[in-house]
């Protein structure tokens, strides 16, 4: 986003951030921007792009942005009218869009949406989602739209889901069947999950990052644990768990699963697109997410895999509370509920070298039969 002392070198745009926003606000609603080739070196990023809808005919431009501390502090551009390919001497188009297919990575790829944000979207410059001063990569934009859109996620308060959670993990930890009938309510805007009927028909389990508790339905505490993550210290691969261990692990895991991809827009979460991945005859795009310590999750770094429609198909992590063994979390059977999209069949398998998934053992299964959003 533009810095407060943003310097503008365009001959027709007023100075400073306010001048940019005023100029863009006067453009017609149909105005749009397409980024093409992007080159980054040092503190400079150059974008070849096309402006359309706001002029008599499409306008091409080379935009040069200079950054300081993640903010755009200076901008130059060289605009020119677009000439149709058949009317050029060489017979070639003046503009192509290699960014539509190139894999991304590094600061340059994060620039994909910056031309739009600065030149067309500046009327909303204070509300464009961004990380570290830059707009989200357009893979994350695609993913958010595929799962219902950022605004719809912001409006959601709770997600209620019923189903069954199984797999070998619970047997290894001495808690087989504890979540065979799962009834959970997730608070979308903060880390809180309530499991109804947890360990008994008249009880509920309440998860927050700093405390887990088993309560009666009227709120009387049966048992509780503060700083619950610390209770996993020293655990081996088959160390028995008690019910509060289960509540913490299942609580933070289901909160992460059911709020993704909105999870990736939370403060302190950084995302970077990695090279594409081929699996099951498909090409999947990948986001590596780095999470802040304050967020209860599997691990600081995790990788999310998306199909061409932007739907989540795989999620890799090495859960700290399980000793850091790498695993792949596969997602299938997506459904749309109140405008949001959720996988209803999930299963977790070990990962071998080079990221390939083993067929067994199935560590965790999650099958959701009912979902509602309020």
List keywords for this structure.
alpha+beta; Nuclear Transport Factor 2, Chain: A; outer membrane lipoprotein receptor (LolB), chain A; 2 domains; 13-stranded antiparallel β-sheet; five-stranded mixed β-sheet; 7 helices; 16% helix
Topology:
Blueprint: E1 2-8, H1 16-25, E2 32-41, E3 44-52, E4 59-68, E5 71-81, H2 106-110, H3 114-119, E6 130-131, E7 134-135, H4 138-146, H5 150-155, E8 158-166, H6 168-172, E9 182-187, E10 192-196, E11 203-208, E12 211-216, E13 221-226, H7 243-259, E14 270-279, E15 282-290, E16 301-306, E17 312-318, E18 326-337, E19 340-350, E20 364-373
Parallel strand pairs: 1-5
Antiparallel strand pairs: 2-3, 3-4, 4-5, 6-7, 8-9, 8-20, 9-10, 10-11, 11-12, 12-13, 14-15, 15-16, 16-17, 17-18, 18-19, 19-20
- CATH-derived architecture of the largest domain: Clam
Instruction: Say what the CATH topology of the largest domain is.
Output: outer membrane lipoprotein receptor (LolB), chain A
| Shape annotation | elongated
Structural class based on helices, strands and sheet pairing: alpha+beta
Strand percent estimate:
35-45%
Q: Order of helices and strands, N to C?
A: EHEEEEHHEEHHEHEEEEEHEEEEEEE
